[in-house]
Write a structure and sequence with these properties.
By secondary structure, the protein is of the alpha+beta class. It contains 5 helices and 3 strands. It has helices at 30-41, 52-59, 73-76, 80-84, 86-92, and strands at 4-7, 14-20, 23-27.
């Protein structure tokens, strides 16, 4: 599966994008994107559907076709990228 990474040379911040089936994925590092794509492909012993945070989000989602953003908050809240909202700031400029 292909994905695209952009790194700002000045700040060293990185963003990765991919499309897998009906999903558009966004990550703040290439290794995170690669891991998410591996989980979604089912090529490892576990799949994303087996992750508790994913299954809880999917169970509470509305009908198919709605745009959703699903995040594992326990893992991303401690990240300085999440706390500074650099992705949102970048998109607004």
């Amino acid at each position: 599966m292909d994905f695209y990474v952009r790194r700002d040379p000045e700040s060293q911040k990185e963003v990765a994008f991919a499309v897998s089936g009906d999903y558009l994925l966004l990550a703040t590092r290439a290794d995170i994107m690669a891991g998410a794509l591996q989980l979604m492909s089912g090529s490892q012993d576990r799949t994303i559907e087996a992750e508790q945070w994913w299954s809880q989000s999917a169970a509470s989602a509305g009908p198919a076709g709605d745009l959703r953003m699903v995040m594992d908050l326990e893992k991303i809240v401690p990240s300085p990228y999440f706390r500074t909202y650099w992705v949102q700031q970048t998109l607004q400029t």
